[in-house]
Amino acid sequence: MKPLLIAVLLAIMQAPPPVQGQPADDAAGSGQNIAGQSEKHNKGAPAPTVPIHKDDSSPRAEPESGKVASDDAQKPVRIGELPPVSVRKDWADWGVWIFSGLLVVVGFLQVWLLCGTLRTVRRQAGLLAEQISLMRDTAQRQLRAYVLVSAALLKFKRPDVPEAQIHFKNFGQTPAYEMDGWIGMYIGDYPPAGILPPAPYNLRKGKEPLAPGRASIHIIPRDPPIQIEYLRLLGTPQGTIYVYGEIRYKDAFNADRYLKYRLMYGGPEPVKTFEKDGVLCALLKADAEGNEAN
Q1: Crossing angle of helices 27-43/2-14, nearest 10°?
Q2: Distance CA 180, CA 218 (A)
Q3: From CA 75, how far away is CA 82, in angstroms rounded?
Q4: Per-position pLDDT tens, the chain of length 294
Q5: Where are the domains of the chain?
Q6: With contact defined as beta carbons under 8 Å apart, do 240 and 189 qualify?
Q7: Could you tell me what percentage of the chain is helix, strand and coil, using 3-state DSSP and rounding each to the nearest 5?
Q8: Using CA of residue 61, residue 64, residue 65, residue 71, what is the dihedral sign?
Q9: Element holding 210 (H helix, E strand)
Q10: Among positive and negative, which fits the CA dihedral 158, 151, 176, 260?
């Protein structure tokens, strides 16, 4: 009796719990199923699925639709419009805007001042260039050679052959290089009817340097002699003697220089004569035109 009771208790303990909706097997059937499962397991068949009892939180069947509902299922969310957002600006925000505006204004002021400074620098550079040019020109004017007429005489060694003597002098502080020139004489009315005759085309011109303070002289006699019947007209507006010519040279700064002169004995004013070493002489005076230099 006791061995049988122990076997029944063991069978009850090993029996699975009843599944909902299915009738519970009796103890004998359970024992047969356990015996059969053991026999199938021994033959290599898969083990039967053991139903697991779930609590009330598991999905439950809905009688109307027969579908399983889940509390965790995703549901779509629909947004009709965004909620209004209001941003309030405090004094710090306005301070940033004001500081940024001040920086822009300061930047424009700096650009304006820089442009003004640039204009001032350019103007000063122009003035400096003008001053340098003026100083250079002043230095050249002070140091360059100046070859000018220092004296002009008309000598009558013979009444019909007057001789003109033109004295030139370098009044500058540097030499005059490659100096040459020519001289001519013409007797006619005052003022002259036209341009005085130029220098002969084949006139030979010697070149010489003229040191500062040194003098040079050009002499030309009347050739051919004056006819005797015209001697009484010399020194009057109808018999004015013109002595004219040109001097060319280079100064120490390699600049080309020239001197053009036109002197006369006669014209609208009366002449003045004097004797020197027993020879009748007269000073030549400058004409209103024909005298220029650079």
Answers
A1: 70
A2: 11
A3: 20
A4: 555 566 656 655 555 555 454 444 443 444 444 344 444 444 444 444 444 444 454 444 444 444 444 555 566 666 566 666 666 667 777 788 888 888 899 999 999 999 999 999 999 999 999 999 999 899 899 999 999 999 999 999 999 999 999 999 999 999 999 999 999 999 999 999 888 998 877 776 778 999 999 999 999 999 999 999 999 999 999 999 999 999 999 999 999 999 999 999 999 888 989 999 999 999 999 999 999 999
A5: 97-143, 147-197+206-293
A6: yes
A7: 30, 30, 40
A8: negative
A9: strand 208-210
A10: negative
Amino acid present at 57: S
CA distances to 109, 118, 147, 206 from 112, rounded to whole Å, are 5, 10, 55, 65
CA 168 vs CA 104, 122, 150: distances in Å: 73, 46, 5
Helical ranges in the chain per DSSP H: 2-14, 27-43, 91-143
- Amino acid residing at 258: Y
Tokens of 64: 């109307």
Distance between CA atoms of residues 118 and 172, nearest Å: 42
Q: Measured between alpha carbons, how far is residue 234 from residues 30, 108, 222, 238, 267 in Å?
A: 179, 83, 13, 8, 10
Q: Which long-range contacts (CB under 8 A, 24 or more apart) does 200-208 make?
A: 205/180, 205/181, 206/180, 207/178, 207/179, 207/180, 208/179, 208/180
Both tokens of residue 151? 């004296």
According to DSSP, residue 104 is labeled H
Task: Output DSSP code: residue 212.
Answer: T
Q: Are 246 and 181 in contact (CB under 8 A)?
A: yes
Return the CATH fold of 147-197+206-293: Immunoglobulin-like (2.60.40)
pTM (two decimals): 0.59
